[in-house]
């Protein structure tokens, strides 16, 4: 998923995007996977060795608190990688020139070298899960296809959680990593589009989901995002919600205006309020717009998903209306 025209290329911030992919074969080596290096030995320990397998360089200093948090995590994950990557540590207090040449201005900083060149990297004491995912992008996951699928599933789950927690940058980074490994992963495509929507880039999201292969275009998750984009476009044309609320205050039985307000509240993320407006219309007049309030609520459910708390709560209320 690289190249200047890739809709996923623009960064949401955070770490640099990975340039290596899942599935790279580990390279056996008798040398220790973790070692310290010096300015004099950097070419041999890093540049030359990276032609055999990816080499991570951990730039650190004794006074750096975050470095003390990150280094044990790095060492643990590299050791567990069983030779797929190597870790070289460089104390910038004793050896500042290499860090200076690479433009490193804060630590901890980890730069991955592949085939003699810097290929990827990140800064800061990131969580173990991100370190593991970073290493898997470079050296490939530890196992075969089943392990790779499990790794991707775990990353997607973490990304979905970050998006739910409104960490758009973190979610976009993980969805993007999956797309590098599997460019036609429907969940990652839908997730990245959701990140774009959350970042106020609805048009970019629509472009990303345009002209997809039929198998992807028909995926339920991607169709849900497309419907969400349609709902956003429709809500923009429905008028001022303050004015609509004033009309409803004067005439609470103006069902047409109440449905409009429900659509606006939905795209604002006020799902419970949106559902309640539609349910109110149903309670008062099931015949309005040929049961249009119920049909609209079902469309909301398709976008929200069956496990969304708003869907669960609204379904319960809907059942009480339908079967009372």
Short description:
Strands 1-3-2-4-5 form a 5-stranded mixed sheet, with helices on both faces. The protein has helices at residues 42-48, 65-80, 97-101, 128-139, 145-164, 168-181, 186-198, 202-208, 214-217, 220-235, 241-250, 255-267, 271-284, 292-304, 309-322; strands at residues 34-36, 55-60, 86-91, 109-114, 117-123.
Describe this structure in words.
By secondary structure, the chain is of the alpha/beta class. 55% of the residues lie in helices and 9% in strands. Strands 1-3-2-4-5 form a 5-stranded mixed sheet, sandwiched between helices. The protein is elongated and about 80 Å long. The N terminus is likely disordered.
Number of strands: 5
Large-scale geometry: elongated
Separation, N- and C-terminal Cα atoms = 52 Å
What ranges have pLDDT less than 50 throughout 5 or more consecutive residues?
1-31
Residue share in helix: 40-55%
Determine the number of helices (DSSP H or I, runs of at least 4 residues).
15
Strand content: 5-15%
Order of helices and strands: EHEHEHEEHHHHHHHHHHHH
């Amino acid at each position: 998923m690289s190249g200047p025209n890739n809709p996923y290329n623009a960064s949401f911030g955070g770490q640099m995007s990975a340039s290596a992919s899942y599935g790279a074969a580990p390279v056996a080596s008798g040398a220790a996977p973790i070692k310290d290096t010096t300015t004099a030995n950097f070419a041999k320990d890093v540049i030359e060795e990276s032609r055999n397998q990816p080499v991570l360089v951990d730039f650190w200093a004794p006074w750096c608190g975050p470095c003390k948090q990150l280094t044990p995590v790095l060492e643990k994950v590299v050791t567990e990688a069983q030779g797929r990557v190597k870790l070289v540590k460089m104390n910038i207090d004793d050896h500042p020139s290499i860090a200076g040449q690479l433009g490193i201005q804060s630590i901890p900083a980890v730069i991955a070298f592949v085939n003699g060149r810097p290929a990827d990297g990140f800064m800061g004491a990131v969580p173990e899960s991100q370190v593991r995912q970073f290493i898997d992008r470079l050296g490939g996951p530890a196992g075969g296809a089943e392990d790779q699928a499990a790794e991707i599933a775990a990353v997607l789950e973490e990304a979905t959680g970050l998006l739910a927690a409104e960490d758009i940058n973190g979610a976009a980074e993980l969805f993007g990593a999956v797309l590098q490994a599997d460019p036609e992963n429907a969940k990652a495509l839908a997730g990245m589009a959701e990140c774009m929507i959350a970042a106020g880039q609805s048009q970019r999201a629509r472009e990303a989901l345009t002209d997809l292969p039929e198998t992807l275009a028909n995926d339920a998750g991607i169709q849900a995002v497309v419907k969400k984009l349609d709902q956003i476009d429709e809500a923009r044309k429905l008028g001022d919600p303050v004015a609509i609320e004033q009309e409803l205050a004067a005439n609470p039985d103006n069902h047409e205006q109440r449905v409009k307000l429900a659509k606006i509240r939905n795209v604002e993320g006020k799902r419970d309020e949106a559902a309640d407006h539609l349910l109110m219309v149903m309670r008062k007049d099931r015949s309005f717009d040929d049961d249009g309030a119920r049909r609209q609520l079902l469309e909301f459910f398709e976008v929200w998903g069956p496990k969304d708390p708003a869907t669960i709560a609204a379904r319960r209320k809907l059942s009480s209306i339908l079967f009372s």
